[in-house]
Amino acid sequence: MTRYSVLDLVPVREGGTLTEAFEASAALAQTAERLGCTRFWVAEHHAMEGIAGGATSVVLAHIGNATSTIRIGSGGIMLPNHTPFQIAEQFGTLDALFPGRIDLGLGRAPGAGPELQRALRKNLHQASEYFPQDVVELRALITGDVDLPIKATPGLGSKIDLWMLGSSLFGAQLAAKLGMPYAFAAHFAPDHLDAALETYRHQFQPSQALAKPYVAVAMNVFAAKTAEEAETMASSQQQAFVALRTGTPGKLKPPVEGYAQSLPAPHRAMLDHLGQAAAVGAPDQVRDQIDAFAARTRADEIILCGSTFDPQDRIRSLEQTMHALTRSEPSDAIKGAGTASIPA
User: Fold this and answer.
1) Whether 33 contacts 338, CB under 8 Å
2) Is the model's pTM score more than 0.90?
3) What residue stretches are annotated with the Luciferase-like domain (predicted)?
4) Would you say the C-alpha torsion 118, 242, 226, 190 has a positive or negative sign?
């Protein structure tokens, strides 16, 4: 049975504040918990005025306090930005605060230009070369499976689920070698999806944490009463994608009716390309698109993404999506495996 989870970028909208963004994320997490979603992840991005998840572990503490059962975690922490010891302490603290609910998704992409590298006091491109070793060290700091000269407190002995995130064959190969669950970021980089999942499953080596491959795939999802409403709602994120790819990122903009059709051909082609991992439409349409995507990828879990200008639209979209997927009535309180971990 396919599980469903949520990835949130903690978007900051035009005319909005950081406080409002954090409140909206907490409300979305509460909705995901009520609807039976398995986990709620926050992504690490820096120096982007439209995304407020840079201090990811702090945001997760806020989300944890607003919820009670759903797993919470990073989707993901970009490990080259940090030291393994710091992340072990931060997520060890989260595990002590919210026992049995913490996921630590790890990514390799530094995602930073020279200015951010200087601000972080890191050579991020060099640090990314040590990513595999840093993942092993971080796991050892948490599990104690390797005797290290220093112990992370909090950290050592924490019951954290470690994940590998990726959008290429590199992450798939490393996740397989280390016996970790693997989440593919198809929502913004669908090119290598099928090859990466095949590589991961074929090369997977069982570990103490995971006996067989476990795959999650992220896709953008916008559900509304009509397909036209859903397409308009999705236009805020489409504008954000175009702005990012053209070097002009900013706060999340209001929706624009017919936005995609107004773009020049290269930009429309980019959005069509991202549409490979998207479901946009009325609830039944979204359900069918998600079901087809799940069948194509054979994913154990689908991670639902998609920022909206009005936070209530995101909540309504998630409600309609989950009701359609579970074939329940909108008034039902769906009971799900909110505290479920990855099956061993």
Assistant:
1) yes
2) yes
3) 6-295
4) negative
- Residue 146 contacts by C-beta under 8 Å, 6 or more apart in sequence? 136, 137, 140
DSSP state for residue 313 in the 8-state scheme: H
**How far apart, in whole angstroms, are the C-alpha atoms of residue 237 and residue 276?**
15
Query: So where are the chain's domains?
Result: 3-325
At a CB cut-off of 8 Å and minimum separation 6, what does 236 contact?
Answer: 13, 252, 253, 254, 255, 307, 308, 309
CATH for the stretch 3-325 = 3.20.20.30
Q: Tokens for 326, please give them.
A: 């579970």
Residue-wise pLDDT tens digits, 234-261:
999 999 999 998 989 999 999 999 999 9
In this structure, is the dihedral angle defined by the CA atoms of residues 338, 86, 48 and 76, taken in order, positive or negative?
negative
Sign, CA dihedral 171-172-178-183, equals: positive
Task: For residue 228, give every residue at least 6 positions away whose Cβ sits within 8 Å of its Cβ, in sequence order, or none.
Answer: none
- Count helices and strands in the chain by DSSP H and E runs: 12, 9
